[in-house]
């Protein structure tokens, strides 16, 4: 009996020491946006289920409602999600409001090193305060805003000749923002195969984050900065710099002269629809959609080409992508951590890329065969080298909605000037930071 | 319940309970019956109102649980009342309110007047006309969005047919000039039947003998319309205006589906802006002050209006 007791105590002790890796079988729920990579993750997670014995459930919310739905869930201390692949901008709020579990001790215990992931993704998706070694997420899905175009149209001799005649230049993948506008304007209302087509599909959505993501894709290549000195919140002269004004005017011109009619409230879905229906020559969207676009039987394959957001004064792409976090209100944190440990493995990351997810793991990105593994892989690497993200402050929603309003008022509703829009934006942001006690 | 059943129930009441109930005054019994309702009213109406008033003087944010809540006095009210963007939202709301009510009363009364004349198929037409108000605003918003689509929308094609313009040459939802009118058109399409039904009730409540007396006095049809029909339907019309006014002041779903408040902030009505402040920006204190201002505005206007309505009814 004594022997038995000792063995039992020993077993209990052993179990408690290795608790994070031997959690009892659980029903885990992972929350994310409803889009192509989410389907890939469902497929990938089957391996985790087989290995761990845990069951994975998924709560995928369409993008326009994703932030509302998930932030409400977090703010109310909801237990729906055990794991959350939250947008990069939520990291500040997630950390400061105690929604996300801090992962440093777990990473140390399990030998997960952030040096194994692309630095830009670690900075953007994992750290708070920015750039400090305080990790609240594991980089899960690298992403940036980029472009795709009708390669079959660009390669047609009659169209190439018409472009040459109209502009004196060769029709090619644009090398600058201004060249891209010129190409879009060339295609605007052009007859191709008896159908009127338009220049490009860009983001103009008002309700969530659409137009901000679109406008920043012009602002960053012009050299836009949020602050004169990082961390100082001194925005005057940075946010409304002459370069920023020029970039915003550029985006408005793009909207007015090179987009389809009625394109006043469009985001990811509308961009994909416009392209797949043969309505536009070019479109902006997140890399996440590129595998699906390439596989499309009508407009994919040889008919589609991809290019990184073109530079103007400098290279610059709007950052997308997300990190995966453990929700602090979850009762199944051990099992959730087990999932992150599994997901961080190089072989799982390789499979993730293979299935259509964008791994941020160096073992995948630095693989010699990576750039040839997909037609857009090289562009992805290039984009991730020059990404910029929106504010990641806890008050990010207020900051974002202020920008949505100011730029939509100017670009789509044609109210005021670019200078006024950016000046007002500084006023709004200043008020937010004053309320936050940061100014 | 038959007397026999009542007697049986009464006799089944234990004497102790019966004695107790017999000892209660009518007033006490009334309170026992009313108390649950009063409790519910306090819990779901009065308490939140008082709490909202209290929050409106703070910088509270519902998404920042651990954050210190500061009392900032009238700062939220001052910010709202001096914010030019909020006044633009108020203007957009006033434009929507005025024109929807104007068109709904005009068309609703005309339809009611026509329907009130006896003709074959009268009931069928009434049913067809009231169909739009039976639909969900979300559904109406979505299908009108398709109708307004500049390239494939039926609305643009109909306008193009009559004006000779290109269908894709104008955007009902994307144009700053046309978007405010596009939401007025949809709301009018949906809610005119409601005004029509109220007007119809008013018209049918006018006794025939009044018109017969007017005929004997040789009053013309026009005279009858202005001296009998309009004055007698007026209280009903005013009631319809009150209902539609209150409803449209808090209009949200239909406009969100149609324009999302855009383009820019052209159709951002106060309720849409309030929702953004409260549940997207999470400025709970600020949004509470905003809600109180709107509440006082609606309550004040409605009180004045109800007094006017009572005066009309007394005439």
TrEMBL record, chain A:
Name of one Pfam family that matches: SBP_bac_8
Keyword Signal appears in the UniProt entry: yes
Claim: Signal is one of the keywords in the record: yes
One Gene Ontology cellular component: periplasmic space
InterPro entries the record matches: Bact_solute-bd_prot1 (IPR050490), SBP (IPR006059)
Swiss-Prot/TrEMBL keywords: Signal, Transport
Cellular localization per UniProt: Periplasm
Signal peptide: 1-23
Family designation: Belongs to the bacterial solute-binding protein 1 family.
Name this protein carries in UniProt: Carbohydrate ABC transporter substrate-binding protein, CUT1 family
From TrEMBL, chain B:
Organism from which the protein derives: Cribrihabitans marinus
Annotated ABC transmembrane type-1 domain residues: 90-305
Main subcellular location: membrane
Membrane topology qualifier: Multi-pass membrane protein
GO BP, sorted A to Z: transmembrane transport
InterPro entries (alphabetical): MalF_N, MetI-like, MetI-like_sf, Sugar_ABC_transporter
Protein name (database record): Carbohydrate ABC transporter membrane protein 1, CUT1 family
Record flagged with keyword Acetylation: no
TM region positions: 28-51, 96-115, 124-144, 178-203, 224-246, 287-306
Keywords: Membrane, Transmembrane, Transmembrane helix, Transport
């Amino acid at each position: 009996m004594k022997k038995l007791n000792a063995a039992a105590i020993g077993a209990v002790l052993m179990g408690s020491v290795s608790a994070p890796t031997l959690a009892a079988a659980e029903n885990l729920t992972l929350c994310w946006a409803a889009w192509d990579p989410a389907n890939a993750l469902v497929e990938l997670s089957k391996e985790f289920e087989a290995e761990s014995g845990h069951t994975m459930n998924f709560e995928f919310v369409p993008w326009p409602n994703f932030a509302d739905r998930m932030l409400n869930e977090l703010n109310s201390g909801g237990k729906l999600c055990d794991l959350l692949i939250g947008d990069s901008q939520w990291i500040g709020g997630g950390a400061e409001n105690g929604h996300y579990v801090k992962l440093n001790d777990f990473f140390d215990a399990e030998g997960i090193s952030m040096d194994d992931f692309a630095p830009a993704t670690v900075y953007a998706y994992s750290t708070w305060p920015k750039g400090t070694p305080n990790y609240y997420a594991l980089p899960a899905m690298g992403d940036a805003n980029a472009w795709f175009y009708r390669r079959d149209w660009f390669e047609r001799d009659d169209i190439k000749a018409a472009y040459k005649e109209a502009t004196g230049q060769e029709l090619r993948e644009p090398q600058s923002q201004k060249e891209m506008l010129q190409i879009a304007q060339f295609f605007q209302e052009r007859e191709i195969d008896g159908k009127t087509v338009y220049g490009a599909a860009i983001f103009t959505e008002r309700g969530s984050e659409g137009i901000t993501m679109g406008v920043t894709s012009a602002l960053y290549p012009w050299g836009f900065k949020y602050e004169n000195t990082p961390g100082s919140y001194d925005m005057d002269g940075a946010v409304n710099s002459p370069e920023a004004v020029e970039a915003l005017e550029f985006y408005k011109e793009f909207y007015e002269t090179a987009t389809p009619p009625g394109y006043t409230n469009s985001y990811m879905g509308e961009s994909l629809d416009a392209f797949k229906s043969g309505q536009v020559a070019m479109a902006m969207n997140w890399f996440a959609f590129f595998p699906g676009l390439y596989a499309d039987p009508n407009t994919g394959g040889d008919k589609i080409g991809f290019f990184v957001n073109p530079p103007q004064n400098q290279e610059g792409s709007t950052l997308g992508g997300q990190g995966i976090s453990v929700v602090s209100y979850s009762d199944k944190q051990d099992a959730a951590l087990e999932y992150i440990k599994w997901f961080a493995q190089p072989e799982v990351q390789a499979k993730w890329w293979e299935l259509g997810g964008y791994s941020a793991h160096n073992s995948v990105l630095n693989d010699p065969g990576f750039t040839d593994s997909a037609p857009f892989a090289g562009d992805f690497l290039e984009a991730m080298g020059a990404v910029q993200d929106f504010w990641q402050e806890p008050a990010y929603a207020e900051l974002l909605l202020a920008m949505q309003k100011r730029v939509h008022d100017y670009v789509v509703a044609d109210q005021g000037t670019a200078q006024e829009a950016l000046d007002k934006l500084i006023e709004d942001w200043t008020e937010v930071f004053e309320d936050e006690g940061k100014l | 319940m038959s007397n026999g059943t009542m007697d049986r129930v009464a006799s089944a009441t234990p004497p102790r309970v019966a004695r107790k109930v017999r000892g209660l005054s009518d007033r006490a019994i009334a309170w026992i019956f009313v108390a649950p309702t009063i409790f519910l009213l306090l819990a779901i109406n009065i308490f939140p109102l008082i709490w909202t008033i209290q929050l409106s003087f703070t910088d509270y944010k519902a998404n920042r649980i651990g954050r210190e809540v500061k009392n900032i006095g009238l700062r939220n009210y001052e910010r709202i009342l001096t914010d030019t963007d909020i006044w633009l939202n108020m203007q957009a709301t006033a434009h929507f309110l005025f024109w929807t009510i104007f068109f709904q009363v005009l068309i609703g009364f005309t339809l009611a007047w026509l329907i009130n004349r006896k003709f074959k198929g009268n009931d069928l037409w009434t049913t067809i006309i009231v169909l739009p108000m039976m639909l969900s605003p979300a559904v109406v918003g979505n299908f009108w969005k398709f109708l307004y689509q500049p390239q494939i929308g039926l609305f643009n094609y109909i306008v193009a047919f009559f004006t000779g313009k290109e269908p894709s040459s104008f955007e009902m939802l994307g144009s700053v000039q046309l978007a405010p009118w596009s939401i007025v058109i949809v709301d009018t399409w949906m809610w005119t039947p409601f005004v029509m039904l109220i007007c119809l009730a008013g018209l049918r409540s006018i006794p025939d003998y009044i018109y017969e007396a007017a005929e004997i006095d040789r009053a013309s049809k026009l005279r009858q319309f202005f001296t009998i029909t309009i004055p007698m339907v007026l209280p009903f019309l005013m009631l319809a205006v009150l209902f539609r006014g209150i409803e449209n002041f808090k209009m949200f779903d239909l406009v969100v589906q149609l324009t999302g408040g855009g383009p820019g902030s052209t159709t951002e009505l106060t309720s849409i802006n309030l929702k953004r402040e409260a549940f997207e920006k999470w400025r709970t204190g600020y949004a509470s002050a905003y809600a109180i201002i709107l509440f006082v505005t609606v309550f004040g206007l409605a009180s004045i209006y109800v007094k006017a309505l009572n005066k009309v009814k007394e005439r």
